[in-house]
Specification:
Structural class: mainly beta
CATH superfamily of the largest domain: Immunoglobulins
Organism: Archangium gephyra
CATH architecture of the largest domain: Sandwich
InterPro entries: Ig-like_fold (IPR013783)
Oligomer: single chain
CATH class of the largest domain: Mainly Beta
Largest sheet: 6 strands, mixed
Radius of gyration: 58 Å
Protein name: Ig-like domain protein
Length: 771
């Protein structure tokens, strides 16, 4: 359907949208690239996310709907991406070229109007890294003067896969043959003695050809900067049946003991060139007559004096390693073989080698005598220079001599060696276990030592004791080190024993009092259990009164009390009176009874007395010792005081009584309900101010009523044991005035009206019967 304008409806809508939204579409906006990285040398398909407005193509004279035209350009770094495709207003697709160099690159999207959006560092190219060179093809054979098949040389990454180079690399290819020539595959007319090929970024290898006119086994080598060189063998010749084995590579100069040397054994035909090996192979046997020599195919293999192996296929040349650890003027090596197909023996070959000692690696220092060594007595030694395999080397020159550990009086300090040997007399001055050390003054780590030698000392002349770092804590051990020294300061070897004493410390408070027998030095723990302001420990060898006895004394130091372990609460002599303060001394002590210096928060308790019936209950800031005034309000026959602070506790050893105070009032016991005609029981108890029964009271009391009535009896008989019971008490002048819930009964001491008490009587017309 067309509109009245003759335009397609969608086209009309798009035109209307353009007119309503402005004459230009939105600027593109790039927000993300996925994936964010790719490998060098490999094209990577990318998804670009963001906001992209494409061009709209409208054919106003056609019924065809408008189309979206992709006119976006994507650049990654300096290179242009290809296969750019519009997916939606939110996404584009593009392919990153394989030639992008490693590193981070900006990604830029540009629309048809030239407006662009750039994501800085949006895509990273990772270089897998070139790890090594390899010959992809195996060993090649060629007729003289003819080109081999293509031989490929490649760069490989650590996983063994071909690795395109990120920077130009120069490969160098050479041959050990003077007549060998190389050419790049397809460029045979440019044959060269040495070939250099430059690999451009993105290339991972090259194909080359080899040609040689000289029959034999020739080794090709390839190298590249910063990569290990590689080698491969090419056999050139007629390759006739095998007739002989030959050592074709033998060193002309003597071998060095312990260092492997490269050998080569070739299987040859009758012309002296490489042989064609039978399918079953050639069995090759290699031997050496040296008991310390051995042969191996690879450096990591064990070396054997007799080596047998089979050569098959194109393996007509066998590279070998020979190592010998004993120096000798002549060592023989032999090679023999037989054809496993025809069982025919091949012509053998024998060569001789010389093995010289290696470089001097150590010195051997040997003592000639066997008796005990003493300071100041010369002892004879022999010095020899050796290589790593104990071959005597022809070392000539000065060797520095010393001891380990050092002996300041050791002599001589050096010696001259001639052809690897010398003898000298040595003297020692320090008593110790010591080794004589010989060192090359010019080559580090070339040295030699004797086994440990025991140097004996003279008699002891001095005692030395370690200082005591004070203050110490009572009951805690500290270490004393005592040394018996000769006149050189060496620890003597004579057995000794010392007696210990401490100034101002009572007997039994120092442990131990003797060191026990020791030789040279002894370290033992010392314990002082008495706290003192200052003391010193004296140590005397043998008897204190013996003339010439060795002795020494520590410096002065203090001994502090240890941590509080308990409290000492002194006994309370005699009975105390309720409510009357009395003094008790309390002391905080350590395990050994020393008064401590810790500060405590004390809590007190009295046996069988509730906390509210004595004071004080706490003592803050207590330290060492204090006299505390206690007041107990409860009269009882036996109690004792105790104290606690944390885990430390204390209690009086004995008990004491608390007597009641003077009578302050009476405690009456009356029935809960009384009538005017009742006879009822009244019990009175004399008590002090804290309701303790005063059993010593024996007075009498007057009884009265208030506000009306009379009571009989009005005067009590004498109290017995501080209490009294009246079984038949009656009231008068109260009838007709009930009920009265509080008819006061007034009890007053007959001699002291201040001692009085009032008690309500519940006067009723009738009272319920008690069950």
């Amino acid at each position: 359907m067309r509109s009245r304008t003759g335009m397609h409806p969608l086209a009309l809508a798009l035109v209307t949208w353009v007119l309503s939204c402005g004459s230009a579409p939105d600027t593109p906006r790039l927000q993300a690239v996925s994936p964010e990285r790719g490998a060098f040398g490999t094209p990577e398909r990318l998804l670009l996310s963001g906001s992209f407005t494409p061009d709209v193509a409208v054919d106003l004279g056609s019924e065809a709907p408008p189309s979206l035209e992709n006119r976006f350009e994507v650049r990654i770094g300096a290179e242009r991406a290809y296969a750019v495709r519009f997916l939606s207003r939110d996404a584009l697709e593009a392919t990153a070229p394989a030639t992008l160099p490693p590193g981070r690159h900006d990604v830029t999207v540009t629309d048809a109007q030239g407006r662009s959006s750039t994501l800085s560092g949006g895509f990273e190219v990772i270089d897998r890294g070139v790890h090594r060179l390899v010959f992809v093809t195996s060993m090649r054979a060629a007729r003289p003067g003819e080109w081999t098949e293509p031989i490929r040389i490649e760069l490989r990454d650590p996983s063994g896969q071909p690795a395109p180079t990120a920077t130009p690399r120069v490969l160098r290819i050479t041959s050990d043959s003077e007549t060998g020539r190389f050419a790049r595959h397809g460029q045979e007319e440019e044959a060269r003695r040495e070939l250099e090929v430059t690999l451009a970024p993105g290339e991972s290898g090259v194909d080359v050809l080899y040609r040689d006119t000289t029959p034999g086994y020739h080794t090709m080598e390839s190298s590249c900067d910063h990569l290990p060189s590689i080698a491969q063998t090419v056999a050139v010749g007629r390759l006739g049946p095998p007739t002989a084995v030959r050592f074709t590579r033998v060193p002309t100069s003597p071998l060095v003991a312990g260092e492997p040397v490269a050998l080569t054994v070739d299987v040859l035909d009758s012309s002296g060139g490489p042989a064609s090996l039978p399918a079953t192979g050639i069995q090759l046997t290699l031997r050496t007559n040296s008991p310390a020599g051995g042969l191996a195919v690879n450096e990591a293999d064990p070396y054997h004096p007799d080596l047998t192996l089979v050569l098959q296929g194109a393996q007509g040349r066998l590279p070998l390693l020979y190592k010998d650890t004993r120096s000798a003027a002549e060592v023989w090596l032999s090679a023999s073989g037989f054809n496993r197909d025809t069982y025919g023996a091949l012509s053998p070959h024998t060569v001789s080698l010389a093995v010289r000692p290696g470089s001097t690696q150590r010195f051997e220092v040997l003592r000639t005598g066997t008796g005990p060594l003493q300071a100041g007595v010369p002892e004879r030694f022999i010095l020899t220079s050796l290589d790593a395999w104990n071959n005597r080397t022809p070392y000539t020159g000065r060797v520095r001599l010393d001891t380990s550990p050092p002996d300041p009086g050791f002599s001589p300090g050096d010696i001259e060696l001639e052809v690897g040997m010398a003898a000298f007399n040595a003297e020692f001055s320090r008593v110790q276990r010591v080794s004589v050390v010989a060192e090359d003054p010019h080559v580090p780590n070339v040295r030699g030592t004797t086994p440990e030698l025991a140097i004996q000392a003279g008699p002891p002349t001095n005692l030395v004791v370690s200082p005591v770092v004070g203050p110490q804590l009572a009951g805690e051990a500290f270490l004393l080190t005592l040394e018996a020294l000769d006149r050189f300061g060496n620890r003597a070897e004579t057995p000794l024993s010392v007696t210990l004493s401490a100034a101002g410390v009572p007997e039994g408070a120092l442990s131990p009092t003797t060191s026990g027998t020791f030789t040279g030095a002894i370290t033992f723990p010392v314990v002082l259990t008495t706290a003192v302001e200052e003391t010193r420990i004296s140590l005397v060898e043998g008897s204190v009164t013996a003339p010439g006895a060795l002795r020494t004394t520590t410096g002065g130091f203090a001994v502090l009390p240890g941590a509080t372990q308990r409290f000492v609460v002194e006994d309370t002599p005699g009975a105390q009176m309720a409510g009357v303060p009395f003094r008790v001394r309390i002391r905080a002590v350590d395990t050994y009874g020393n008064t401590t210096r810790d500060v405590h928060e004390l809590e007190f308790d009295a046996q069988s007395v509730h906390a509210h019936q004595f004071t004080p209950a706490r003592f803050s800031g207590f330290q060492g010792q204090a006299d505390v005034e206690f007041t107990v309000l409860l009269a009882l026959a036996s109690t004792r005081l105790s104290v606690v602070s944390g885990t430390a506790k204390g209690q009086q050893p004995g008990t004491f009584a608390v007597n009641p105070g003077p009578v302050a009032r009476f405690q009456p016991q009356v029935p809960p309900c009384i009538t005017a005609a009742d006879r009822w029981k009244l019990t009175l108890q004399a008590v002090d101010n804290w309701n303790n029964a005063v059993t010593s009271y024996s007075g009498t009391a007057r009884l009265t009523l208030s506000p009306f009535g009379a009571i009989s009896p009005s005067l009590t008989p004498a109290f017995t044991g501080g209490s009294l019971t009246l079984p038949n008490v009656t009231l008068s002048e109260v009838a007709g005035r009930e009920p009265q819930s509080c008819l006061e009964l007034i009890v007053t001491d007959s001699e002291d009206p201040r001692k009085t008490v009032r008690q309500c009587l519940n006067l009723q017309v009738s009272c319920p019967k008690l069950q």
